[in-house]
# Entry
Amino acid sequence: MNRATLSVSVVSHGQASLVSELLNDLQKHCADESIEVVLTVNVPEPLPDSFRHFTLPLKIIHNAVPLGFGENHNRAFEQATGDFFCVINPDIRMNANIFAPLMAGLHDASIGIVAPMVVDGSGAIEDSARRFPTPFKILCKLFGRCTGCDYVIRNILIYPDWVGGMFMVLRREVYKELNGFNQKYFLYYEDVDLCARVWLKGLTVALIPQVRATHVARRSSHTKIRYLWIHIRSMLRFFFSPIFLKLMCLRATR
# Structure
């Protein structure tokens, strides 16, 4: 197989039907791009026949036991050949080739991570670009005071503190130098941690609002106690990490 320009990593948790729709979007809008897809099947599930008709290179990893978000994408990176590495959720939809402008944005060597503007099914802008969380901000949200989006997204490039892991693109060498996601996070805050390390490396995180993707969000942490507990545990891990302390020191000197 020839080396791809872009490797797209997607993880399925019994979401083969959603993955099939994503693959259809890639095939419809990105067939002219040099793209390979690395699909990780995190829990056993039958794969639809439609996968056989997918014309872009497709590598499938079957996990013997379920792994965390970061570890799954790190293992996919080991199988990837692309100069760029995209982390994407199965419930992302696109109606155009949005990878070309994202990769073009990464030609700016000062940018470490780039992401599109993410909207929900109704077209409303999601809060996928945020300022770094702090204990004060979390408490403020709990008491209903800190509401709304952290950034006003207009038709210009913005540099948020972090972008959601449902869709982000990095240059291969940057992902490798960062050693990918921190696998100590099983779920949640991996994206916050990764973006923090990008900033600490002297690079930036960028969101291109002219590039749009649709996210059919399923917030399990709001409906299942187990996921809520994982979310809280990940949040505490981040707040007590050296990365958070270094980040706060960096922001204090600016």
